[in-house]
From TrEMBL:
A biological-process GO annotation: tripeptide transmembrane transport
Protein name (database record): Di-/tripeptide transporter
Single GO MF descriptor: dipeptide transmembrane transporter activity
Known function: Proton-dependent uptake of di- or tri-peptides.
Residues spanning the membrane: 29-46, 58-78, 90-106, 152-171, 177-197, 226-246, 252-272, 284-300, 329-349, 361-384, 396-417, 459-477
Cross-referenced SUPFAM superfamilies: MFS general substrate transporter
Superkingdom, natural source: Bacteria
Recorded GO CC terms: plasma membrane
Organism ancestry: Bacteria, Bacillati, Bacillota, Bacilli, Lactobacillales
Cell compartments where the protein resides: Cell membrane
Residue span(s) of domain Major facilitator superfamily (MFS) profile: 1-199
Alphabetic keyword roster: Cell membrane, Membrane, Transmembrane, Transmembrane helix, Transport
Record's bilayer topology term: Multi-pass membrane protein
PANTHER family in the cross-refs: PROTON-DEPENDENT OLIGOPEPTIDE FAMILY TRANSPORT PROTEIN, RESISTANCE PROTEIN MDTM, PUTATIVE-RELATED-RELATED
Length: 489
């Protein structure tokens, strides 16, 4: 990097931060733009330009798709650490994502949908964790700007996630789904152009190389492992076909069980490893209740693009000052509230300094707000019945509540994950954070099938109370968890 480029700064941060923030902003634009209309595209009838899936199938696919996208972050971390280095992995990931959106832009129906899911799943797994990793690497270990750097990063994610449903949602739902998906592809294209030009100028040359390249004998082992996986997957498919149970719903079930097993495997592997110290082992144990709390939080948060999206389409008055608007616009509420709350929470934590509640306490309050946001959604059904349309303010308030929870869980979880990571497993622990979201959506792929207009009061009630109960249990255990975190070496 030249002296001049190192000195140029972005709000007092390394110039590379703007490259990464913009790349992630466009990538999230394409992802959340696509998701804002995908649910409707899947369950609208063919006559209405959709694919004609049932609502429960479409909801289940949305969730398992979300699970896969975060599950592959494990693979993306491996590819960059050991094969290509972060910079190339991000570029290739971005190209796969763009191709995935192009696939949806074509009129090839369900086939194109599954091709697109595969491309975007692998592409995002390669891009997302490595962009975050490169953002962290811009700062020396104890640089005081790191935390604000991540706040700018999270803000960028949510700018993309906010604008996308407004544009892609409007065009997709008003004119044609395929034009909507093309806009998602164009967004990723802008991101790639920006990234290709700026990464050469502003990102370190170290990011061009893997930090722990594979040794030749490891390549052999890796190929063996790959073959075992391919044989394993083919066998599972064969057995399912032989027993005549190879259908979408069972495939989703198999993927969700696998997704839940993976973090269990990681925890056992870390806890039984010789490479970690006694203190580190305790910290990993302390991470387990936080991990479970994060799963319960994402179970509710991620249903915003599935169950709340259906509530928006079926039971909400889509009128604003005499103009109608598409249901997909509600997907902008989540990122909107994040952008509104970030400055307040940054101010609050700065003000409270050492008097802040501990992370387990913040997590339990996070769960409380998530739970309340679902209990709140029982009210329109209880007051007006479930067969009528209600004011958009019901959904708006629900998002306003759950996002208070997100502010207490998402940034805190990221920071705590890095703090509790044993030295030997730093990148694996980062993947664990994304796995909490993956597991949540894997569980959702089974739960959301039970949502229907007729049962929605019980549905929101049970999940809301469950989240609050888990929050209360965590609150009771918070002192013990904090002790085990043992953050003062
Ligand atoms: N919604 C955020 C994003 O898209 C966070 C997801 C997560 O941390 O699991 O980046
Ligand atoms: N809140 C999500 C993520 O931070 C964005 C979304 O669901 O639209 O950033």
């Amino acid at each position: 990097m030249s002296q001049e480029n190192t000195l140029k700064s972005f709000f007092g941060h390394p110039r590379g931060l703007s490259t990464l923030v913009l790349t992630e902003m466009w990538e999230r634009f394409s992802y959340y733009g696509m998701r804002a209309i995908l649910l409707f595209y899947m369950y609208y009838s063919m006559a209405d330009g959709g694919l004609g899936f049932s609502k429960s199938q479409a909801a289940s696919i949305m969730s398992i798709y979300g699970a896969l996208v975060y599950l592959t972050s494990v693979l993306g971390g491996f590819i960059s650490d050991r094969i290509w280095g972060s910079r190339k992995t991000v570029l290739y990931g971005g190209i796969l994502i763009m191709l995935g959106h192009i696939a949806l832009a074509t009129p090839f129906g369900r086939g194109a949908l599954f091709v697109s899911i595969a491309l975007i799943t692998f592409g995002t797994g390669m891009l997302k964790p490595n962009v975050s990793e490169m953002a962290g690497a811009l700062y020396p270990t104890n640089d005081y700007r790191r935390e604000t750097g991540f706040n700018i990063f999270i803000f960028g994610i949510n700018v993309g996630a906010f604008i996308a449903p407004i544009i892609v949602g409007y065009i997709g739902q008003t004119y044609n789904f395929h034009i909507g998906f093309s806009l998602a592809a164009i967004g990723m294209f802008f991101g790639l152009v920006q990234y290709s030009i700026d990464s050469k100028k502003y990102l370190s040359s170290e990011s061009l190389f893997p930090n722990d390249p594979l040794e030749p004998e490891e390549v052999k082992k890796l190929i063996q492992k790959l073959i075992i996986w391919i044989i394993g997957i083919s066998l599972v498919i064969l057995v399912m076909v032989a027993f005549n149970i190879f259908n979408l719903s069972n495939v989703i079930t198999v993927i969700s069980i696998t997704t839940i097993i993976i973090p269990v495997y990681y925890f056992i592997m870390m806890l039984s490893s010789q490479k970690i110290t006694k203190v580190e082992r305790k910290r990993v144990v302390a991470y387990i209740p936080l991990f479970i709390a994060a799963i319960v939080f994402w179970i509710i948060e991620e249903q915003g693009s599935v169950v709340l999206a259906m509530f928006a389409e079926d039971q909400t008055n889509l009128q604003l000052w005499g103009h109608s608007f598409p249901a997909s616009w509600f997907q902008s509420m989540n990122p909107l509230f994040i952008m509104l709350y970030v400055p307040f929470f940054t101010w609050l934590w700065n003000k409270l300094k050492n008097h802040q509640p501990s992370s387990p306490v913040k997590f339990s309050f996070g769960l409380f707000f998530a739970g309340i946001s679902f209990l709140w959604m029982m009210l329109p059904g209880l007051i007006f019945g479930t067969n009528t349309k209600v004011s958009p303010l019901w959904l708006l308030t629900s998002w306003a509540l759950v996002i208070i929870g997100e502010m207490l869980i998402s940034p805190i979880g990221l920071a705590t994950t890095t703090q509790l990571a044993p030295k030997a497993f730093q990148s694996q622990m980062m993947s664990m954070w994304f796995l909490s979201d993956a597991v949540a959506q894997a569980i959702n792929s089974q739960i959301v099938k039970n949502y229907s207009q007729g049962h929605q009061i019980q549905y929101f009630g049970i999940l809301g109370i469950f989240a609050i109960l888990v929050g209360i249990i965590l609150l009771c255990a918070s002192k013990k968890v904090k002790q085990m975190m043992n953050l003062i070496d």
